[in-house]
Amino acid sequence: MKGGTISDEEFRDTLSTFSQEVEPFLIRSVDDKIVADALTYVTKHGLKPADSIQLATVIELREMMKGAGERVIFVCDDEELAKTGREENLEVINPRKEEDKIKLKRMLMRR
To answer: Where do the structural domains in the chain lie, given as residue ranges?
Structure first.
């Protein structure tokens, strides 16, 4: 419950679920380059700072993965941020849209 309290068992269950769900994702720290790029997106697109850091990170990841032939998909349910991602030539999936939710589930099942 957001802002409330939960039992120890609920906490352990939530932590376990989070750990399982985050495992297939790459966790990236924010460095000076990401912050500098994020500032560019704040001015270019009028994004909020946290959104611009998210965008800068996924764009950097896309550039890193090009050499490996890997596909990078931006999963985002914020329409303004998703629109900006598409403007920056990212493939975007919005998990709140039914067709995107189906696409995402298929992709995760292939792993």
So the answer is: 29-109
Tokens of 110: 């292939």
Q: Is 65 helix (H, G, I), strand (E, B) or coil?
A: helix
> What's the whole-model pTM score?
0.71
Structure tokens, 51: 């959104």
Cβ atoms of 55 and 88 closer than 8 Å: yes
β-strand partners of 75: 93
User: pLDDT tens for residues 12-29?
Assistant: 988 888 888 777 776 778
Tokens standing for 24? 């297939």
Tell me phi and psi for residue 75, to 5 degrees. -95, 115
For residues 37, 63, 99 and 108, what is the CA-based torsion angle, rounded to 10 degrees?
Answer: -120
44 sits in which H/E element: helix 32-45
Whether 41 and 52 have beta carbons less than 8 Å apart is answered as yes
Would you say how long the chain is, in residues? Answer: 111
Nearest-angstrom CA–CA distance, 73 and 91: 5
